[in-house]
Amino acid sequence: MVQAMSWWKCSLLIVTAAILMVVVGGQFNEPPGKRREQTFKVLEFENSNINQRYPGTLRYYCTFRGKWSAERHPNDFPRRPSWGPPIIVSHSNGYRMWTGTEAVTAGVESIAEDGFFTIYTNEFLNAGFETLHMVHGERMFNTTESQHLPPINVTFEHPFLSSMVKIQPSPDWFVGFSDFRTISYETETYYNRILIQSYVWDSGTDGGQTYTALDRDLDPQIPCYRFCARGSGKSNHQCPDLTKGRIETPPLGQFLDYTGTYIPTPGEFECVLRVGEGDVFAGTPFNETQIRPPLSVPRPDDDFVDGVSPHDPEFEQKTGQSNPRASTGVRLTILAAVQAITVLGFVVAACGIL
Ligand SMILES: *[C@@H]1O[C@H](CO)[C@@H](O)[C@H](O)[C@H]1NC(C)=O
Ligand SMILES: *[C@@H]1O[C@H](CO)[C@@H](O)[C@H](O)[C@H]1NC(C)=O
Ligand SMILES: *[C@@H]1O[C@H](CO)[C@@H](O)[C@H](O)[C@H]1NC(C)=O
């Protein structure tokens, strides 16, 4: 009986360890047992001590940073590029603006193809209680510039943020994320700050294969897909993989860098939480500049140095610098190894194997 008990505890521990490893393996803030393909890559986050039931006003001040350029994405890059007005909505768990694997609504199609909000606004309003707030920024003609977006409210019932920014010109391509939950399942508090790197999405409503292709509506439309670089990634990130909503870039290789091996981040979102109506610094009246994230932040493992891609095999010869991406890779490997050893030690100790 004692033997059986300890084996039971021991296997429970192994399951806990496995869940820990899965979280380490890339899913961000998903409830237990509910894995799905996420539409965002969270590069940095900070927890706050604001409980999920906080009754006062909570808003995120988000900044959109464009990173779509001829230097980073040289293939077929259009002559007159721009970003459509960025749009962010907050909503409940009972609402989806778009997902990375299903056909999009007519409103989302209209944003992705034309950058217009009219049809989408009706969908947003028709969702009633499920949607809370919708804000949008300005069209941006310098595609590597950044802009501050109007603050967006969240509540305990509406903690999810979804976003779209149309790539112009393009058949139906956009950047953004969907269903990001601003309350951590782990701490049950709001995130104080989040930094999301975006993928590139094809809304699946237009068959055009170049930025300036003539309108060619797909009938029936296909699911929304995320562009990926062929042959990239490890076994769990194969490209293409239609079951996971990943489709190869069009034949001209739009969005790939000049090495053709990866898609540099086309844009990122950084959001900071403001709590209530009070001061940020005691005794000083609130001023947005006190909490706005900076417009431009260098990303050593993603930004080009003197026009050289961090995925260029000759990075070090060409720039005379060590590749920040390589050292990030090493750091992550060490981190993963330390974590694995810790978990193993924990299991060994608890099961009394030694
Ligand atoms: C967002 O919060 C502000 C500040 O409390 C409030 O004035 C505004 O009405 C809210 N908007 C929505 C759509 O909830
Ligand atoms: C676009 O914006 C970036 C970042 O603010 C700036 O460095 C660059 O000079 C701008 N390009 C043009 C053509 O204005
Ligand atoms: C906010 O602070 C910035 C920088 O300190 C200042 O330039 C700006 O005028 C202030 N805005 C308001 C409305 O006080």
Fold blueprint:
Layout: H1 2-24, E1 41-51, E2 58-66, E3 82-83, E4 87-91, H2 106-114, H3 118-126, E5 131-136, E6 146-148, E7 152-154, E8 160-168, E9 173-181, E10 189-197, E11 199-202, E12 225-228, E13 246-248, E14 267-275, H4 315-319, H5 324-351
Parallel strand pairs: 12-13
Antiparallel strand pairs: 1-10, 2-6, 2-7, 2-14, 3-8, 4-5, 4-8, 8-9, 9-11, 10-14, 11-12
Helix pairs in contact: 1-5, 2-3
Bound molecules: 2-acetamido-2-deoxy-beta-D-glucopyranose (NAG) (3 copies).
Pfam families: Spond_N
Transmembrane segments: 332-353
GO cellular component, one term: extracellular matrix
Pattern of helices and strands: HEEEEHHEEEEEEEEEEHH
Shape: globular
Distance between the termini: 21 Å
Strand content: 15-25%
Bound molecules: 2-acetamido-2-deoxy-beta-D-glucopyranose
The CATH superfamily of the largest domain appears as: F-spondin domain
Output the radius of gyration. Answer: 22 Å
The percent of residues in helical segments reads 10-25%
Low-confidence stretches: 1-5, 7-25
Structural class: alpha+beta
Counting DSSP H or I runs of 4 or more residues, the number of helices is: 5
* CATH topological fold name of the largest domain: Immunoglobulin-like
Shape-level CATH architecture of the largest domain? Sandwich
Total of domains: 2
Topology, number of strands: 14
| Mean pLDDT across every amino acid position | 87
Main pleated-sheet profile: 8 strands, mixed
